């Protein structure tokens, strides 16, 4: 890939072909370099919980301990296992959204079918923290896509909205239908994201400094990159904005199915 075609100035067509091929080679090289970085990040992320598990088990075996100590150790092990399986689930989602296989199962479905399951699923968790989920009436419109994947987008955004919100706040879901597309907004009143970090949050393994320090939230930094990959695979767009006085808005747009 480091080789470049020698471009000679005698023939315009050859010049152009050489430039095009070299452009492709540059893009392939950039892609491979991204994949290498991703693989290194994945290895690192998988190794951390495994090292923690190993250390916890070794310490526990070496020491004579009470039943309560063993109970605590088992709790720690269970948390690390949960983190590992979440990570593996998310890596599989990334692989699926990148493989193009998801497009095979594109079907036509109503917008509400991807919104309501997540709202119902998170209702109890939100209520336990006195967070209200308010979903405005959903327009009756149809999308063409992989409904499981799009459900995952709403799931990840709502999951984040709850995790990064304080108690007694409100999360709103607003869907607006336009001529050819629908816009879905998930608005929270949580801690917000510093303006200069807004564009980075969709990068794989990116976590704000404040979130990295709060390991209890068990985040992986993959949730939003999965959302972006899925939305792009459906010819949509996604972005994050800050809200005043505090909070974050995630909004994405998806094309409507032709026959509504
Ligand atoms: P994570 O598993 O860490 O939540 P994500 O990819 O879902 O990974 O999010 C990346 C980072 O973006 C999070 O670590 C967090 O710092 C920030 N973030 C995501 N959603 C929100 C939100 N609703 N409010 C504030 N910060 C958020």
UniProtKB/TrEMBL annotation:
Residues 1-33 form the HAMP domain. One of its GO terms (cellular component) is plasma membrane. One of its GO terms (molecular function) is phosphorelay sensor kinase activity. The keyword Transcription does not apply. The keyword Transferase applies. Residues 41-258 form the Histidine kinase domain. Its EC number is 2.7.13.3. It catalyses: ATP + protein L-histidine = ADP + protein N-phospho-L-histidine. It is an enzyme of class 2 (transferase). It is found in: Membrane. Keywords: Kinase, Membrane, Phosphoprotein, Transferase, Transmembrane, Transmembrane helix, Two-component regulatory system. This is histidine kinase. It comes from Tuwongella immobilis.
